[in-house]
Amino acid sequence: MEKGKCVGVICCMLLLVSSSSLVASQTIVKALPGYPDPLPFKLETGYIGVGEDEAVQLFYYFVESEGNPDEDPLIIWLAGGPGCGTLRAFFFEIGPMQIEYGKYMDNVPALKLDPNSWTKVANVIYLDAPTLTGYSYTTTPEAVRSSDTDSAKQTAEFMRKFVRDHPRFLKNPMYITGISYSGIVIPMITEELYKGNDEGLQPTVNIQGYMGGNPLTDKTGDINSRLEYAYRVALISRELYEATLKDCNGDYAEADSNNLRCMLDIDEVNRRVGDINIQQILDPDCDPATNLVRGGNPLVKGNRKILKANPIRMLPTRSTLVTDTTFCRGEYYDYATLWANDENVMKALNVRQGTVKEWLLCNLDMKYNYGKPSMPQYEFNVRSSVVYHQKLTQRNCRALIFSGDHDMMVPHVGTRNWINTLNLTITDSNWEPYYVNGQNGGYKTTYARQNYSLVFATVKGAGHTAPEFKPAECFEMVKRWFAHRPI
């Protein structure tokens, strides 16, 4: 978009929002369409303006801890994409509610409580960021386009303003958390908050660390690791793996298109994995053929469709779904889209009228695909965030990095590779099993350097968005970590 100009829907939204409406917004939501009773937890929604003239209005859901809100950590969860609405986390990953598939109430999908909600042990902010994600919007056309660096700065500004507006939580331990593409910005936001404290920005925030789930971190390295991962899990042969490494000079992601032998190897690799679900290799494959180089972050296919014109398929109950290998996981998300676009839902959440024409699970104008420097509404201007992890190793800081071990999108292989570049010391665990309900939940390695500590854990059987696949294991893992106990 050319600076100073706006087009179509965005212009209409901007005209409908006057600057006089941009007052501090906090709404206590006591009931939600689809749930039959008053909410048994405290839910607040609202907007906080960030950036120049606060032209970016970020929408959030805040759930106070159901444990001890005055002492439990304050965390922010970023859904990734970039551009994916945080309702994905609220309903499918770490939130207090789930959708009851196949059931309706108040003309929207019915809701139920999630027994593994992270809100049982933490105060959780679910943020629609960057702008034009979920219910977030802008008041000027210049603010529409975002980037990795802009998003990180604006989210850090959001957190400082949030505790300013909620002084009760100033002393709570603060952690920056999220999943997938958010791995690029999480360490950037965390360092920005530490740096702001050093510079005397007010209020001082009690930042203590960060957490990333299957985090995209070093874009080239993470993409390259898909080849090794595919070999390790027996999707390609040893001969093909070794030939590709040799012919491509060890660089699969940045291969020379004039290198014919390398290109032929890559084509053969992609042929072998084309029918594999890159986000969870054991799930049915419902998307276009997997391409290990060009596959970006997980986006829902057909996410722009108008549901009123294309009604979603009636789903059976979850207990039936888990044995139905022909069902596509993406169809779950259609329920969230239907719920979020309901007028009564928007009214209950106090979404500002005229700011969002249609809620999308993910904004496709921000969709990340390796090799593209930008999209119409987002610039991918940070290739690797490892340097920010390195800066944080000099801080009094804790980190938890976890990976679903069935994820080929951002494989644990690449994640451990960049962790190894931090030159940390392995302490009491080196690929040791941890247990949840008496069963092996995955493997953990603990690292440290001076006042910095990092735990890396795999989640056995989980895919790219690990808490979605293994909610009990992920909940128990973070519960222990928040409490400073071995996971």
From TrEMBL:
Protein name: Peptidase S10, serine carboxypeptidase, alpha/Beta hydrolase
Keyword Thylakoid: no
GO MF entry, a single one: acyltransferase activity, transferring groups other than amino-acyl groups
InterPro entries per the UniProt record, alphabetical: AB_hydrolase_fold, Peptidase_S10, Ser_caboxypep_his_AS
Keyword terms, alphabetized: Carboxypeptidase, Glycoprotein, Hydrolase, Protease, Signal
Gene3D superfamilies the record matches: 3.40.50.12670, alpha/beta hydrolase
Family designation: Belongs to the peptidase S10 family.
Extent of the signal sequence: 1-25
GO biological process: proteolysis; secondary metabolic process
Entry annotated with the keyword Calcium: no
SUPFAM superfamilies: alpha/beta-Hydrolases (SSF53474)
Organism from which the protein derives: Helianthus annuus (Common sunflower)
